[in-house]
Design brief:
The protein is an alpha/beta fold and 341 residues long. It has a single domain, classed as Rossmann fold (3-Layer(aba) Sandwich), CATH 3.40.50. It is 35% helix and 9% strand. The protein has eleven helices and six strands. It has helices at residues 37-46, 55-60, 64-72, 92-98, 114-118, 126-135, 146-157, 182-207, 236-239, 261-280, 326-334, and strands at residues 2-5, 16-19, 106-111, 212-217, 305-309, 317-321. The chain has a six-stranded mixed sheet, sandwiched between helices. The longest helix has 26 residues, at 182-207.
């Protein structure tokens, strides 16, 4: 989820940015339009728009049922950011390094157990783990050289199991059916897709002297179990104060179903913090903050801190040093330039 605050009262189009579920560095390899042209051509063929003067206008004018059928019979679901020299001028990590980004305050965050959604199950050996890293199975389209894959695997397998997701397992082992190395797979999967990139974003903003407010969401909503922890997307209902669970049932459980009052309180505090940031560029600029929710610290390089939104502990939030899994995340970010693809 990416939100941009716009203030029509002055000449600055972008006042602030909010990044969740991704940020300036794509979690997949970034390519040019040449990769996607064959997919588009297949859709054109499947919709009988081949002979149209403007194939895009032809597709846009199709009935929903026709277009939906074409999408469902064409390998057309893999649409990712394209480096086109215009909207995306260069790889995200390169532009961050160059300072070529909009210099406005940001919120940037990820969830504790992103790797439960983006890791792999069934990995039981070091060789399987290394092969999966090298092949791009974790970070789509990102194929790594064998020595780098080995270094990443070695680094992550050296982690203390207590520092690996799912967080709800504490220091226990995951069920055997998920794979003997599931917790290490989940740690690498989450870092390689979202968490390392989130840290890079926060460090870049802080290094440029720009306000960055960074977070880790760690409240386990209803519908998640001990093996799924606090996975991808779970913070969204809280950000929008969607305590009625609109849009969830009947396919999914209302995230607040059966949860205590502090979950509702957390949604209130988070939504007010986001609204305050959009309005004032400061997530702390609202009145009525409860004592159980500390002020959200601005990220710095000398003392990098996240706010941890967590209704599962005493209080609604705590602050933490943004230093967990430091060696693995640093390795991922140090090598981002050479291995975007």
């Amino acid at each position: 989820m990416h939100l941009i605050a716009y203030n029509g009262r002055d000449d600055k189009l972008f006042r602030a940015g909010i990044m969740e579920s991704g940020n300036s560095v794509s979690y997949v390899g970034e390519f040019g339009s040449d990769r996607y042209q064959p997919i588009y051509d297949a859709i054109v063929r499947n919709t009988n728009c081949t002979d149209a003067i403007n194939t895009l206008d032809c597709i846009r004018g199709l009935p929903f049922a026709t277009l939906n059928s074409a999408f469902n019979t064409t390998n057309s679901s893999q649409w990712f950011p394209i480096v086109d020299g215009d909207i995306l001028a260069r790889y995200g990590s390169v532009q961050l390094n160059e300072g070529a980004f909009v210099h406005v305050p940001i919120i940037s965050g990820a969830n504790t157990d992103e790797g439960v959604s983006f890791g792999l199950t069934g990995i039981n050996t070091t060789a399987q783990f290394t092969d999966a890293i090298q092949s791009g199975a974790f970070r789509p389209f990102t194929h790594l050289a064998a020595p780098l894959a080995q270094e990443l695997a070695t680094t992550y397998l050296a982690l203390n199991i207590c520092d690996t997701p799912p967080s709800t397992l504490n220091c226990g082992a995951a069920p055997a059916a998920l794979g003997a190395l599931y917790r290490y797979s989940a740690a690498y999967g989450g870092d390689a897709t979202f968490i390392a990139n989130r840290r890079l974003q926060c460090e870049t903003w802080a290094g440029a002297g720009l306000p960055a407010y960074c977070f880790r969401f760690n409240a386990q909503p209803a519908g998640n179990n001990i093996n799924s922890g606090v996975a991808h997307f779970q913070e969204v209902a809280f950000v929008f104060d969607n305590t009625l669970g609109v849009g969830y049932p009947p396919q999914n459980v209302n995230p607040f179903q059966g949860k205590p009052q502090n979950f509702l309180d957390l949604a209130r505090v988070m939504s007010k913090s986001w609204a305050s940031f959009i309005s004032t560029m400061d997530p702390n600029g609202w009145t009525g903050r409860p004592a159980s929710a500390p002020a959200w610290p601005q990220y710095t390089l000398s003392a990098p801190e996240n706010i941890v939104w967590d209704a599962n502990v005493t209080g609604l939030a705590v602050t933490e040093p943004d230093t967990f899994r430091a060696a693995g995340i640093k390795l991922i970010n140090d090598l981002n330039f050479a291995y975007q693809r």
